[in-house]
Write a structure and sequence with these properties.
Length: about 375
């Protein structure tokens, strides 16, 4: 069997890892653009740690804090224009998946003049700002993936820029930035990390290496289920979730995501349902669909979840997540059609039919 694995990002972890590894940042350039949202990086201390460290290194910086949840194409073009204006020669991002996804697109567009109609073409020059990322939620694993997921109003969905150019140079993981996350954010992002690991196991691109990473990620998230429900996570558990998120990112960097994400994009775009929550709502029924043809793979997932059945997993997800308002028949049909057109559907170990997706959507919501 031919297998390959590739994640070139250097990862350092631990309390105070930004300042303790300031020498790595010193090598990246003289002027940084720091990409964040409006509030969270200021509240959790990550922005202060970054700016203190850059100042200690004698590096200059400017902050672009206009990134919203589910960043838009307009947002990343604005950020890239600002990077050019200040002469940034590297980029840092502190935040969740939306911040890191925007940071990657900004790093690409700061070095290349790409018109909007060709942004998702995959045809790019080998030129991008070096990137150092500080994840402050444990969900997307974007700090170790080559994807930038943006809201694409023209296609009425979320669309990915996918190129190895977007692998960050450096990822700095410190669980302390997640200590005061709202319970809903903690649960939704943990389930997002879990969905990456599970979809990786059920991908036709799965390998020995991705299975090792995915099953450990599943185990780490599962070990925190009780405390996620009770909102009593310790710092060590927060760190475990951050590691699980990173492992999930490494998995999908090689396997891609699959049907859960393809369906979930419509829930986020049209219904404004958080990405991780969307995945969690759909995941149980997706596993039930896959169980007939992939019983061994489902067994591998359940053994690491320490659960006896897919139905037990579905019940657990219902306890962890808040269920939003349901879908109309018209919405179910529309979202299923859109999902079937998504590129990540091709990664499914067993390809669902459109009627299967309609059934999942209807039963899940």
């Amino acid at each position: 069997m031919n297998q390959a694995f590739y994640v070139p990002t250097k990862v350092v972890m631990g309390d105070g890892c930004i300042q303790k590894n300031r020498g790595l940042l010193a090598q990246m350039g003289k002027t940084a653009l720091i990409v964040t949202g409006a509030h969270s990086a200021k509240k959790n201390g990550s922005l202060q740690d970054i700016t203190d460290t850059l100042t200690l290194n004698g590096q200059s910086y400017k902050v672009f804090d206009k990134v919203m949840s589910n960043p838009t194409i307009a947002c990343v073009y604005e950020g890239a224009a600002y990077a050019k204006e200040i002469g940034a020669d590297f980029l840092m991002a502190a935040g969740g998946g939306s911040i890191m996804d925007a940071g990657k697109a900004i790093a690409l567009l700061a070095r290349q003049d790409i018109p909007e109609e060709k942004l998702f073409s995959g045809n790019y020059k080998k030129d991008v700002l070096p990137m150092a990322f500080v994840p402050t939620t444990a969900g997307t694993g974007s700090e170790v993936t080559p994807f930038s997921i943006l809201t694409n109003d023209k296609a009425k969905t979320k669309t990915s820029i996918a190129t190895p150019l977007l692998f960050p140079t450096l990822a700095l993981l410190d669980g302390k930035y997640m200590q005061n996350l709202p319970h809903r954010t903690t649960a939704n992002t943990a389930v997002d990390a879990l969905s990456h690991c599970i979809e990786g196991v059920l991908s036709n691109k799965a390998s020995t290496i991705t299975d090792c990473l995915a099953t450990e990620g599943i185990r780490l998230v599962a070990s925190c289920f009780d405390d996620i429900k009770k909102d009593t996570l310790s710092l060590n558990q927060r760190t475990d979730l951050l590691i699980a998120s990173m492992l999930g990112g490494m998995v999908i960097a090689n396997t891609g995501t699959a049907a859960v994400h393809a369906m979930g994009y419509s829930l986020t775009y049209f219904k404004h349902i958080d990405h991780g929550l969307a995945n969690g709502l759909l995941m149980g029924r997706f596993l039930a669909l896959m169980e007939k043809d992939c019983s061994g793979r489902i067994g591998l997932i359940l053994s690491n979840l320490k659960l006896p059945s897919v139905s037990a997993f579905t019940e657990l997800l219902a306890e962890l997540l808040e269920k939003p308002q349901g879908l109309t028949e018209e919405e179910v049909n529309q979202y299923a059609r859109l999902a079937m057109r998504a590129k990540n559907m091709a990664n499914c170990l067993v390809m669902p039919k459109e009627e299967d997706l309609r059934k999942i959507l209807k039963e899940s919501l």
